[in-house]
């Protein structure tokens, strides 16, 4: 597919708009499978080469964007991989992207989403630099305006809203196609009109190449991470919720059994989770708040481990002090002197003071962290209220899991 043709065209657009039928009209033969049923839509990238007015034209048909399944991961991946393949497998690039729209179906929010999606995939300027709109169902247009004398051009000028915007962005490059016509003259004239627009783009612009696609990598990555964010969020919050529950259990049974070992394991788990979320974020910043949540749990675990070490240290020092006192007492007995008074009484209180200080610091820190986590939770809740949080709230009893134990130093 990499050999350069005189003209390379890529068909894009929503399933059912008539991409394959348009490809067939351009090539003048039934090259692509075009059908009314959504079951047999183009699922892979197909290309066909033909001669149009003596010029070699390559037409590439891609899987449709914006069909009813686009919200499903499988369909998303299929479309994205298909478009990627269409670009990468044809490194010489395309002279034009034919954005296929269907006359009669309004330029809806869904169509607008399709264009937005394609901009994310190909780069923000691809519509302005490389797109030609092919409006199919030209026969319906003619039937609707029969006798009114309205031309397609004047109809375009009357349009408002999103459609007007996209047409403006395309510098008015639009052509009406009737893919069902049997009129040879009409077949030729609509294809020739399209070819004139392609030639105009050829003269004034560059091909859309692999390099242009590389440049759009940032927006494409953003699109992918944004798409996957709800799922990553659900998985991560489920894992962090379990970690918090474990931490709370360990905090309630300090210094018992393999307490330290369990804490350390939990910290390793939190660190691994942080690394995972960080790599899933792919430098886009989309998962920032999620990373902060995991970071906060990591800090709390580190603090808990620090506390554990200090407690052990304190116990050791107390044990040392007791054995020193016992030794001093026995020496005094032997030498017959009065009992020894400790030289630096305050020094012996140091471990306890240190522990109290750590406990207080921890309490203050965790209170702050809890506030921060609840804030980011509320923020996310606003964003995803229709998606995952009601589910999480019910499934993981989130607010109670988030209420970290604060240490009461007076107890
Ligand atoms: N009436 C009419 N139907 C069309 C036209 N272009 C495509 N169709 C029909 O629209 C349906 C979907 O076309 P298809 O090329 O498979 O769309 P794709 O999914 O975008 O490739 C098919 O039943 C086509 O026959 C057109 O210009 N006029
Ligand atoms: Mg098709």
What does this structure look like?
The protein has 411 residues and is of the alpha/beta class. Helix content is 61%, strand content 9%. Guanosine-5'-diphosphate is lined by residues 15-21, 34-36, 41-42, 64, 100, 136-139, 177-180. Residues 15-21, 34-36, 41-42, 64, 100, 136-139, 177-180 line the site of guanosine-5'-diphosphate.
Question: What portion of residues belong to β-strands?
Answer: 5-15%
Shape: rod-shaped
Neighbour order of strands in the largest sheet: 2-3-1-4-5-6
Average pLDDT works out at 77
Properties at a glance:
411 residues; alpha/beta; 15 helices; 6 strands; disordered C terminus; binds guanosine-5'-diphosphate
How would you summarize the topology of this molecule?
Layout: E1 7-13, H1 19-27, E2 46-52, E3 55-61, H2 73-88, E4 96-102, H3 109-122, H4 126-130, E5 131-136, H5 138-144, H6 152-158, H7 161-169, E6 174-176, H8 184-204, H9 210-215, H10 217-252, H11 259-281, H12 288-335, H13 350-384, H14 389-396, H15 398-402
Parallel strand pairs: 1-3, 1-4, 4-5, 5-6
Antiparallel strand pairs: 2-3
Helix pairs in contact: 3-10, 10-11, 10-12, 11-12, 12-13
The structure holds guanosine-5'-diphosphate (GDP) and magnesium ion.
Magnesium ion binds near residues 19, 20, 41, 42 and 61.
Explain briefly what this protein structure is.
This protein is of the alpha/beta class and 411 residues long. Helix content is 61%, strand content 9%.
